[in-house]
Amino acid sequence: MMEIDNREANAMLALIRSALIEDEALSKEDEEIIKNNIEEIYKISKRNDIAQLIGHALDKTELISPDNVYYQKLQEQTYLAVFRYEGMCFELERMREVFEEAKIHFIPLKGAVIRSLYPEGWMRTSSDIDVLVKPDDLDLAMKLLSTKLGYKLTREGTHDRSFFTEGGVHIELHFDLVEPGKANSASEVLSDVWKYAVAVGDGKYECELTDGMFYFYHIAHLAKHLECAGAGIRPFIDLWLINNSNKRNDNERKELLCRCSLDRFASLCDELSLHWMEKNENISSTARKLEHFVLNCGIYGSEENRIAIDKKHRGGTFGYVLRRLFLPYKILGTLYPIIKRHKWLTPFCQIARWFKLLSGKMAKKAIGEIKISNSTSSQDVKEIQNFMSEIGL
User: What element of type H or E holds 163?
Assistant: First the structure.
């Protein structure tokens, strides 16, 4: 895990506040740090997919010369964010029209909704468009995306189907939200998601989640990413904006969080978002640890942390190895759909997967995981596992 200088991180957070909060000014100290460390600030912001915010904030100042290569890179990220935003809005509107015509209930998720809370929609980038449909509507929805919109199916996951548009926009069509076993078994709560869906807009079939479920899903998704050893800064910016919306329902939030013991984790995330976005210094030592973990892991984290966390959930090295050798039935079914019709073929498909693991890229990946697992000290593993327990995961 690479270490980020706290002064650089704080200066970058000051730029984020300047981009999102009207009349938020940079301190003289932050200005000096930014001028002297623009390269590192660019790299941190790029790693967290928030470079467009930094570029926008700097564009309102004269701190960095327009000739500076990193200033130019940041401006490029801003232009790219606007371009991506326009493309995603266009494709979401196409899906909206097709689903309304076919009378398919659907819920836009994550970035497609959260960006409306930002001063400008393009400020909130996302790598894809996430839309939820009911399981019974999945086949029809997939057919419409392929035949009417020309989207290309590229992957079938345990809870979604992945498409790409002709223009390269990534679409994730969900029929379930969090995978089983992730985020303190949040899937048990999210299985009731349609009970918390309400009609929105002029259409009859587009829905939005109630505040409690929308907040819960954001926390559960953030927990899932942290369990995979990375989350990044952006979800905490999102969280601050969600918490400052006009639809807040604290009772519903608490009830849903307590159902799968995510209340402690949510409280720490709220605490950290306030610290970053409102400079609230009344922050606990555990929230400080969460801050350090998030800043130094970025969006994707590290393979070392992921393996250490997986070992915690699997009861140690033996459980981790067993989990890697014997995939759960639901996950194996996405690789070998035939077992959904003929469950007795499950052990044969497990064996077929083992042969697949022995060749090509999968073999290299498996060998790499074994090397990382063996090279990670027991002390490092214990520290990460203790940290996850401390934050309530």
Answer: strand 160-164
